[in-house]
Amino acid sequence: MDGKRLSVSGVIMGRVITVTSGKGGVGKTTTTANLGTALAMRGARVAVVDADIGLRNLDVVMGLENRIVYDLVDVVEGRARLRQALIKDKRLPELCLLPAAQTRDKDAVNAQQMIDLTQQLRAEFDYVLIDSPAGIEAGFRNAIAGADEVIIVTTPEVSAVRDADRIVGLIEAAEKGPASLIINRIKPRLVSRGEMLSVEDVLELLAISLLGIVPEDETIVIATNRGEAAVYDPNSLAGRAYINIAQRLAGEDVPVMAIPDQQGVLDRLLSLFGRRRT
Amino acid sequence: MSFFNGLFGRKRDSSAELAKQRLLTVLIDDRYKLTPEMMAQLKADLAEVLQRYLPAIDAEQIEVTLSRGEAHDLLKADVPLRRAAEPPSKR
């Protein structure tokens, strides 16, 4: 089974992976939901944790908002046991959500409590994916406190890349590095016209390793409206991209998925003459 | 002209290239927080040390830049030397 590791005491332990970004709105929650679902579809036991205390969202993205009884803060403060708070996914019994508290703020938990929580979770699951809040304050620090690995999500835009670089530095400083990168919402036609940063540009700027790329895709909007992960939809390009990323995360030796650029005849002709394509 | 630029590589003035160049500058600034005053002092100190070994250094002409490299970032100093009219005589 992929994901498992041996702890010092010889007990099999799961990997704790935090998904973060710096800038808000670049797709952390969508990424966490889809990677968690894709890993569970592979047969792994997965817990996705919403660490955005006060701005709960992972539950609605996964369509589990009606099942919440207890939340992360209830567990940390001892009002509920972990097992009571974990919500099973509708389709995949091996996929569980630990929702964030909605009526509390980021100060409701501290880093040590998050470390203790992830230790409990990694004993039960192969993967523990933590959806970090945006920003560089306490919420972000709590979200990475118990992590073995950190994934940074960015989009190919100046503000998102700048914030991602800040996060790269903070993760290195917290000795949680090196982080790996997911570049989300790539518009291939815009890139080939030279009007959007390419994957190579972003990698050169941030100088961290590439975990995967996800194209801009309307099916994400539809999947989110329905509360279903895009990885279930075989026609979703973004869903396929997340499956590719899950494979790479699980250690499979597969290349980063190429994004078909769906460009017109003229673009194709121009690209034949050596115009830069990505 | 722009037609050929479009054919043979990315236009120099494409918005993506502009974004990249702007980010290169801003990321270096964010990381090292070297103010213009500190940069001026750095150049002056550098000139002072180097002039002990190379009197031909023109302190005014030193250019120090920070750039992003593959494995690490780079501080680069371009230090022009005044060409002497004739080689210095040995004493």
Can you give a write-up of this model?
- The complex is a heterodimer of chains A (278) and B (91).
- In chain A, the strands form two sheets. Chain A has an eight-stranded mixed beta sheet with strand order 5-6-4-7-3-8-9-10, sandwiched between helices. Chain A has a two-stranded antiparallel ribbon with strand order 1-2.
- With 278 residues, chain A is of the alpha/beta class.
- Chain A is globular.
- In chain A, helix 1 crosses helix 11 and helix 5 (111-124) packs parallel to helix 6 (138-145).
- Chain A has twelve helices and ten strands.
- Chain A has a single domain, classed as Rossmann fold (3-Layer(aba) Sandwich), CATH 3.40.50.300.
- Chain B has 91 residues and is mainly alpha-helical.
- Chain B has a domain at 34-83.
- Chain B has helices at 2-7, 15-32, 36-53; strands spanning 63-67, 74-78.
- Chain B has a two-stranded antiparallel ribbon with strand order 1-2.
- In chain B, strand 1 (63-67) and strand 2 (74-78) form a beta hairpin.
- Chain B is elongated and about 50 Å long.
- Mean pLDDT of chain B is 80; it is low at 1-8.
- The chains are: A alpha/beta (278), B mainly alpha (91).
- Chains A and B meet through helix 7 and helix 9 of A and helix 2 of B.
What topology does this entry show?
The complex is a heterodimer of chains A (278) and B (91).
Chain A: E1 5-6, E2 12-13, E3 15-20, H1 28-41, E4 46-50, H2 58-61, H3 72-76, H4 82-85, E5 87-88, E6 95-98, H5 111-124, E7 127-131, H6 138-145, E8 149-154, H7 158-173, E9 180-186, H8 188-192, H9 199-206, E10 209-215, H10 218-226, H11 237-249, H12 265-272
Parallel strand pairs in A: 3-7, 3-8, 4-6, 4-7, 8-9, 9-10
Antiparallel strand pairs in A: 1-2, 5-6
Chain B: H1 2-7, H2 15-32, H3 36-53, E1 63-67, E2 74-78
Antiparallel strand pairs in B: 1-2
Please supply descriptive tags for the structure shown above.
heterodimer; A: 278 residues; alpha/beta; Rossmann fold; eight-stranded mixed sheet; two-stranded antiparallel sheet; 39% helix; 17% strand; B: 91 residues; mainly alpha; two-stranded antiparallel ribbon; 3 helices; 46% helix; disordered N terminus
